[in-house]
Amino acid sequence: MSSASGPTAGFTPTGTIASTTDRRRVVFATVVGTTVEWYDFFIYATAVGLVFGQLFFAPLGANSAIVAFATVGVSFLFRPLGAFLAGHFGDKYGRKVVLMWTLILMGAATALIGVLPTYEAIGVAAPILLVLLRIIQGISAGGEWGGAVLMAVEHAPKQRRGAFGASPQIGVPLGLLLASGVMALMAMIAPGDAFLVWGWRVPFLLSVVLILVGYYVRRRVEESPVFAELAERKEKARMPIITLFRKHLLLVFIAALVFAGNNAVGYMTTGGYIQGYSTNPEGPLALERGPVLWAVAGSAVTWLLSTLAAGFISDRIGRRTTYIIGWILQLAGVFLLFPLVNTGSIWLLFLGLAILTIGLGFTYGPQAALYSELFPASIRFSGVSISYAIGAILGGAFAPTIATALVQATGSTLSVTWYLAGMTVVGLIATLLLRDRSGIPLGPDHEAEQSVSPIYGLSKA
């Protein structure tokens, strides 16, 4: 790390002095990198809700939408593989190298989807190739989050981990904002059949430019100070994943449930469900594609602001208390969402999404700091990555598919509301099972303290 003196200097978790410039560079790099990654990931989900059922799964008729949404979920099944690989290599070789590779993998897969022929052109090979590329996106996403989180939190002073940790978190709403905005713009430039023919491809191809920007920014960031000290002491775990599951299996599961409660609800928009439900020409609303995309983009702004605010607030009142407030807000948003969406008004649709995203922000903003403070330094990358990946499977992986199936089976969105409410309550219960560890030392000198279980009723992990 660069040294500094005077009022602008501060201490990293390992005691090394870090300048304000170093920290700003880390925050900027994590925001840019995660925004690019999630733009790529969400562009796919948005396209599923709008065109992929028709272009790649048309022979399935009425089931094309369900199968198309299922391809969104398939990628989540491969997130644990990405998390296992990234966790293993991240704990052995560093956070930075993993982040460079996840960015490249995600960008390559996204750009290739942009040139992929449809079912009409090459038959069944089209959906097969689409799923394979989505799997690559899933592997990349599984490894991305943990590395970005640790780069931010492990560079932060302990009293500001929530604020620093919110920087990779806001990459999600920023990615959604960018994906929805670009898709909305293309819906204006290439309306109607032109959007089906070529308009949807442009946002995927733009990924090439964004990846180059993200790669350049990430190259300039120094390695996490916690990992640098582990490497200097030669205290890196040989088999971090085995250690994680042998000593911290229950903690991984509870941490995963915390994220699952947020992720299931969040994927109503990031998974493309609201976009598909509200614009379906054969559905009850049949709204225009462009205005719906702009409404989703607008809600991404409220999500961004609430996520950022929650990170700062968690530094004042603790991660656990911030989460509890968030679950209450999220539950209120869940019960308001479909009554407002089903009015058929674009403005009320936006209002429903905006209210929902306030709760989503409060149950997502503190997650980076919460997860980082749960696991010991030597296996932290594996712990946060795998918990996140499992939570994504239990929560958002098939949330759009489940919602679509529930509406088809019951004829009402009320069933979806109760499903989302149930997932929110699961997240709340998981949060209540964990002690607040805000401010716990993160460096390798404190492995013994970090290894004491944060789960109520347990003294050892």
Automatic annotation (TrEMBL):
Q: Where in the cell is it found?
A: Cell membrane
Topology class, membrane:
Multi-pass membrane protein
User: What keywords sit in the KW lines?
Assistant: Cell membrane, Membrane, Transmembrane, Transmembrane helix, Transport
Q: Which domain of life is it from?
A: Bacteria
Predominant location of this chain? membrane
Gene Ontology cellular-component terms for this entry are: plasma membrane
Q: In Gene Ontology terms, what is one molecular function of this protein? A: transmembrane transporter activity
Q: What region holds the Major facilitator superfamily (MFS) profile domain?
A: 26-439
Q: Where are the transmembrane segments?
A: 41-60, 66-86, 98-116, 174-192, 198-217, 249-274, 294-314, 321-340, 346-365, 386-410, 416-434
Q: PANTHER family from the entry? A: SHIKIMATE TRANSPORTER
Q: What is this protein called?
A: Inner membrane metabolite transport protein YhjE
Q: Which organism is the protein's source?
A: Microbacterium trichothecenolyticum (Aureobacterium trichothecenolyticum)
- Gene name, Swiss-Prot/TrEMBL: yhjE_2
